[in-house]
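Everyone, carefully examine this protein record:
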Amino acid sequence: MASSTPSSPDRNAIQRTAAAALQSKSVTVEKLDGYVFRTYRLRTSGGFFYILRCRPSFNIRLLRHEEGWLETEAGTLQTIGGRADIYTPRLIKYHNTTLHIGSCYLISGPFTGSILADVEPTLSSHALASIDRSLGQYVRRLSSMPGRDFGPIRQSQGFPGFKSWAKAFAFLLEAVMRDGEDALISLDYDAVRDLVRRHRGSLDKISQPKLVLLELSADRNVVVDVKEEQVTGLLDFSTAIWGDPFMSDCFYKPTASFAEGFGKLPNRSADERVRQYL
C-alpha cells in the first residue's frame, strides 16, 4: 500500500505502536538525525534500546536501491537471525502499510551500549583503535555468511537472483546510472557499461555469494560498549545484498586496526584492484 506520508509521524502514534510491539507500558521516543529514513530510538525500562525506522517524507525522492530498504532489512534480519557467533538485532515488527503511524515502519533490537557517533568525542585514540579492531572482527564474521545467489537477500522483493557476480553487479550499477540519467547528470553511461563488460572476468572471480552491507561503517550505525571498547552491533541492515564482501564501504581507506581485526584486505591482486576500482 503506497501513499504520501506526512512530514513527520505523530509522536504519540509511534509511542503507542512501540509500546504494543515491545510489550512495555513505558517507552520513550527520541528522534535521531542524520539518516535517510526517519529513525527513532526507543528506550524501555529494561535498559536496552530499540530502533524504529520509517520512510522519509513524501517530498524526499529516494534512489531506486533505497526504495525497498525497509523490506530488505526485514528480510535480512529474518535470514541471519539466531547466529551464535555474532550479535544481530531481532526483527521485532515490520509493517508495510501506513495504517499505524502514517508510514511503513520497522522495529529492531534490542541493542546494548551507545551509538558510536554519540560517544566518539569522549573516547581516547586507544579506545577508538580497539573499537575499529572489534569492527573488523564483526565484519569478518558477517561476511562469512554464504548465500545461494548473488543479488537481493530475498528474491521475493521483485528483483532476480543471479548465478554470476558480474551480472548482479551490472544490475546494481544500472539502477544507479538510471538514477543519474533521471537527475540529468551528464556522464558517458555507455562507456561505463562497456567498462563493466570488459572486466567481467575479474568480477566473476567471486564465485560464492557472501553477505555484504554496502553502507556499514558510519559512526551513527555502529553500537559500542564503551567500557569493553567493543562493537556490540549495527543499527541498520537495510543495504544488505549477497555479493563480494569487499564492496562494503568499510573497505574504503580502512584503518590499520580495522585491518588487524578483519584480516586479509583487498588490492593484493590485479583482479581485486579491478573490482575495487569498479
Remarks:
- The chain has two domains: 11-111, 112-278.
- The first helix runs from residue 11 to 22.
